[in-house]
């Protein structure tokens, strides 16, 4: 979260003063946010939910994914991306990343089997994935593409907003994201079937009790969960959405200023689309782990290898195949999955570990002054 203030306070006050703080029958903050999000990013349908992970799970449910299915996910993403697969009864297949720090198309290709149903490209740190290649490969093998844009609210790829390129996409609005209501998320899709199923799943009572939210619904209702968003969060998000593009423009401009100033001195990780990159992170790329570690320490940055549960080797419950508390609910013990569970190990994606060890992140701030950036540039130059 970068910018929050009086606009959000007024929005929350508006909801509380209305005394109608439920999603249905009040000020329609959730419904308005969903429509405004669609309009902003060019999606047909959006469902605001309680979190990004809820949005990922609901999207997978909407795709009809479950036991007997494999889903490919990069070895560098927050553990929630992989856990969402397990939550629907399917099996995560972990793929390498490439120098862009996003999923490696060549490794996806190697890991597709007759059980693969979907690919989850993750726009980690707001870095756009290679969506042209991913969508072409998915089309060839008849796979769904679920974009995890949880760290990439507002980013784009070749002029299209992230999360709107695949069959569905998920955003997170938790505290650490570009725009935030403290917690929250949204699923976006142009696919009516995914939308209906995800809608029913995320709030089964929407059909049972709250009438008419799904006019003309063709899907037979089934039992789901409760990921329904609330009016206060939606009111905050409506204000955050208005600020999103300015935040991203400032992040991108500041990132570019620093990269340009250091172009002769440092290498930076390549991008699948630097114009669409969210600009949150400067990614200094080194030839050796030793040099990267020294720069990390010197500049007070972070090597992605040190980001805990963002690195597959720290996904303990997945690596140890504990998918649920109840054994009969555990995808790793299900009969339907018995022949499709890969061998997981801490060193199964050596290229990913190598890349994560040789890059150093320095966070960009949209509110940096010219002097702030000059100071950072001077400090970086002094390392050499
Ligand atoms: C890449 C990625 N996917 C999914 C999630 C899950 O989002 P949430 O915390 O809103 O459930 C996160 C959150 O940090 C994330 O970074």
> Mean of the pLDDT scores?
96
Provide the list of bound ligands, each named once: pyridoxal-5'-phosphate
Largest sheet: 7 strands, mixed
The class by helix and strand makeup works out as: alpha/beta
Outline the structure in words.
This protein is α/β, with parallel strands linked by helices. It has a domain at 6-241: Type I PLP-dependent aspartate aminotransferase-like (Major domain) (Aspartate Aminotransferase, domain 2). Helix content is 39%, strand content 13%. Helix 1 (6-18) runs antiparallel to helix 9. The chain binds pyridoxal-5'-phosphate. Residues 51-53, 77-78, 80-81, 122, 124, 148, 150-151, 172, 174, 185 line the site of pyridoxal-5'-phosphate (PLP).
Present the secondary structure layout:
Layout: H1 6-18, H2 29-41, E1 45-49, H3 52-62, E2 70-74, H4 79-87, E3 91-95, H5 105-111, E4 116-119, H6 131-141, E5 144-148, E6 156-157, E7 160-161, E8 168-172, E9 185-189, H7 192-202, H8 205-208, H9 231-262, E10 267-268, E11 281-285, H10 289-299, H11 316-319, H12 350-358, E12 359-363, H13 370-383
Parallel strand pairs: 2-3, 2-4, 4-5, 5-8
Antiparallel strand pairs: 1-9, 6-7, 8-9, 10-11, 11-12
Helix pairs in contact: 1-9, 2-9, 3-4, 3-7, 9-13
This protein binds pyridoxal-5'-phosphate (PLP).
């Amino acid at each position: 979260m970068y910018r929050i203030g009086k606009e959000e306070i007024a929005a929350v006050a508006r909801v509380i003063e209305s005394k109608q703080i439920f999603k249905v029958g009040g000020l329609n903050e959730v419904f308005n946010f969903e429509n405004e999000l669609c309009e902003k990013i060019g999606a047909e349908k959006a469902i605001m939910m309680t979190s990004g992970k809820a949005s990922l799970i609901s999207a997978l449910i909407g795709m009809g994914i479950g036991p007997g299915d494999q889903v490919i996910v990069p070895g560098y993403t927050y553990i929630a991306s992989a856990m969402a697969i397990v939550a629907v009864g399917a099996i995560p297949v972990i793929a390498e990343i490439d120098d862009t720090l996003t999923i490696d198309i060549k490794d996806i290709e190697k890991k597709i089997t007759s059980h693969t149903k979907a690919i989850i490209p993750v726009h980690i740190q707001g870095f756009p994935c290679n969506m042209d290649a991913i969508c072409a490969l998915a089309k060839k093998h008849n796979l769904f593409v679920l974009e995890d844009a949880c760290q990439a609210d507002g980013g784009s790829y070749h002029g299209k907003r992230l999360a709107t390129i695949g069959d569905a996409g998920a955003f997170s609005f938790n505290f650490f994201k570009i725009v935030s209501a403290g917690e929250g998320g949204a699923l976006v899709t142009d696919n009516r079937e995914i939308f209906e199923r995800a809608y029913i799943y995320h709030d089964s009572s929407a059909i049972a009790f709250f009438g008419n939210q799904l006019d003309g619904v063709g899907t037979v209702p089934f039992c789901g969960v409760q990921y329904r968003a609330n009016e206060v969060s939606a009111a905050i998000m409506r204000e955050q959405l208005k600020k999103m593009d300015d935040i991203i423009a400032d992040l991108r401009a500041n990132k570019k200023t620093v990269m340009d100033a250091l172009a002769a001195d440092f290498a930076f990780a390549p991008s699948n689309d630097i114009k669409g990159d969210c600009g949150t992170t400067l990614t200094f790329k080194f030839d050796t782990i030793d040099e990267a570690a020294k720069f990390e320490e010197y500049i007070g940055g972070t090597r992605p290898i040190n980001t805990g549960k963002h690195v597959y080797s720290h996904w303990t419950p997945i690596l140890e195949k504990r998918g649920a508390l109840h054994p009969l609910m555990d995808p790793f013990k299900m009969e339907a999955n018995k022949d499709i569970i890969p061998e997981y190990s801490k060193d199964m994606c050596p290229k990913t570990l190598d890349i994560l060890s040789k890059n150093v992140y320095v966070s960009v701030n949209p509110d940096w002054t010219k002097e702030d950036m000059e100071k950072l540039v001077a400090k970086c130059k002094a390392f050499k």
